[in-house]
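ok so for the tutorial part 2 we go from a plain amino acid sequence to predicted structure tokens. step 1 is just haveing the sequence, like this:
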Amino acid sequence: MSPRSRIGRWSGWLFVAPYLVLFGAFILLPVFFGLGLSLFRWEMLSPLAPKLVGAANYREALSDEYFWKAMRATGLFVVMAVPLTVLLAMSIALGLASLDRRRALYRAAYFLPVMINISVAGILWRWFFNSEFGLFNAYLAKVGLKVPWLTDPAVAMPSVVLMSLWWHVGGPVVILLAGLKQVPETYYEAAAIDGAGPWRQFVHVTLPLLKPVLLFVVVMNVIGSFQVFGQTFIMTRGGPELSTRVLVQYIYESAFNFYRMGYSAAMSWLLFVVIAAFAAVQFFLLRER
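step 2 — the prediction. this is what the tokens look like for a chain of 289 residues:
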């Protein structure tokens, strides 16, 4: 093999080496360390040495009512947030795709909230939702309404979902808009010649050709929604009555409030299994036929 061929063979690995090193150091090693940690009873502030307990942490989690309550809160957020995010992002992307002017301006406006830090967004929306002097209730008071946005267990989670839609929908909008611009106009022209209206064009042309992009958007939204933490932690602290304490928050509290590192690692791996299962189902349902 000539020196030039040898250099060309290894040049790709040299370019990706910095990423691989960082990925291994900050992703792979912590993941496998967490897997090992989940098999130990490790109380961070306890004078006792960590003790190997096998699957005891997993059995405890599966019998823990607070774990299942946090899982139900997480599932409720996923069920509410993912369909609304995808439908709203698709609607906005279709609207932007139909514009001839100022498309870039509107696209930037929708994407701007994504760039806001979750701490800032959470504090801002906590003020919006304040029952006594919040912005929303100030306008609703004009028609005689007062909504307990973050103080009623029945309303708190939908309020968090509403905030998450505003904060997060811009990312899927940009991705779906890019996918829509890749669909050739000739397909729409052929469909129009065959008598297909806007709805049939959307169902029989746009959706099939947009399926890979839609799969990416749905899977990433499901993964992100299962890992929801910042919104609930900043806006409600898991209340009222633990109605918004999601699983990641329970893991955080178990690890850094009660210092149960092994138990928290076990719950993290259970969450990973749930996310992986949902992702596999989505890949199956949205696979190319």
